[in-house]
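Colleagues,

For the teaching module next term, I've prepared a clean inverse folding example: a structure given as tokens, and then the sequence designed for it. I'd like students to try predicting residues themselves before seeing the answer, so please don't circulate the second half yet.
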């Protein structure tokens, strides 16, 4: 079975093109495969944040379909960093630079963009649909249908939270630097992703955001189904939307925002349609780290003793980009 190790801003995945398999995986196999290969201790070559399953799309209007399986085996409706890497994979498989990718709730536009730096291939992805409703978020906060910059005393006596689905669920708080790097994010996010918590019973991605300058933010995220990651594309997009709504207002629409994260940097734009709905553009690297071959049966058993791992050489270029370009943005 062939896999492709990829990352977007350091948020890493294995792409599995199921159209290349003799027989598609069962749902149980796909879940188990993610749990086995993603494990950071016993998984495939250091594990990953998730698996991106690629299959044929539902009609000719899309070039392919992406499903997102978190490291714990749970499925998510969207993956912003992941869809950029899937877009590059489908672009190279089909020799197209602008097309749509089917995701759980929408067919999303993707396109090749100019490289950020030598060896840093860049794609732009549409992040949509966006909803603030408690139902779309799977959120239960007494008497709250929409949460925008409000306190949740059960979580914190001081922080103000906003909740937005893009369409996966995100809870966001704007904080100072000490809080950004402190323990509070892990404490709150672990609770909201624990079994039986009454606020987000299906879990939620939680991000703390520091405003560094006008149209420049730093986003740190604890992801549902994964834990702390280097970056979360949908979180950076959702945080950009809340930055515009809470700090710049409508003048911030269509403006390019630099979003820094522990794994690197992306650019975002926030758009508003005539009907008032929002969508975001997420622009960032789509790095191919290595091509991988492993027997499916061995992977499902967690046996990675016989793996072919061929580095592409792109990771060195990415690390240079982070050292030279990203560090200068901080
Ligand atoms: N890292 C992804 C989000 C992956 C899914 C998320 N953990 C969830 O469960 O909603 C991204 O780049 O958006």
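(Answer key — instructors only)
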């Amino acid at each position: 079975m062939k896999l492709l190790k990829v990352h977007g801003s350091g948020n890493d995945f294995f792409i599995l093109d199921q159209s290349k398999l003799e027989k598609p995986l069962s749902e149980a196999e796909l879940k188990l495969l993610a749990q086995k290969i993603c494990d950071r201790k016993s998984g495939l070559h250091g594990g990953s944040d998730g698996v991106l399953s690629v299959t044929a799309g539902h009609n000719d209007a899309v070039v392919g379909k992406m499903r997102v399986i978190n490291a714990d085996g749970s499925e998510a409706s969207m993956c912003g960093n992941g869809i950029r890497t899937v877009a590059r994979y489908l672009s190279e498989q089909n020799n197209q630079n602008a097309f749509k990718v089917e995701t759980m709730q929408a067919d999303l536009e993707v396109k090749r963009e100019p490289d950020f730096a030598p060896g840093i291939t860049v794609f732009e992805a549409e992040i949509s649909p966006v909803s603030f409703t408690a139902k779309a978020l799977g959120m239960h906060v007494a008497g709250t249908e929409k949460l925008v910059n409000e306190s949740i005393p059960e979580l914190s006596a001081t922080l103000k939270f906003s909740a937005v689905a893009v369409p996966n669920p995100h809870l966001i708080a704007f904080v100072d630097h000490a809080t950004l790097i402190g323990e509070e994010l892990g404490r709150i996010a672990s609770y909201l992703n624990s079994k039986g918590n009454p606020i987000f019973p299906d879990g939620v991605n939680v991000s703390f955001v520091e405003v560094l300058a006008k149209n420049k933010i730093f986003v740190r995220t604890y992801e549902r189904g994964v834990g702390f990651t280097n970056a979360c594309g949908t979180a950076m997009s959702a945080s950009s939307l809340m930055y515009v709504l809470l700090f710049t207002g409508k003048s911030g629409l269509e403006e390019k925002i630099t979003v820094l994260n522990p794994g690197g940097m992306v650019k975002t734009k926030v758009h508003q349609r005539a009907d008032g709905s929002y969508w975001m553009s997420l622009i960032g690297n789509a790095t191919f780290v290595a091509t991988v071959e492993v027997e499916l049966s061995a992977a499902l058993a967690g046996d990675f003793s016989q793996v072919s791992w061929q580095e592409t050489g792109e990771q060195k270029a990415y690390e240079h980009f982070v050292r030279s370009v990203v560090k200068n943005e901080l």
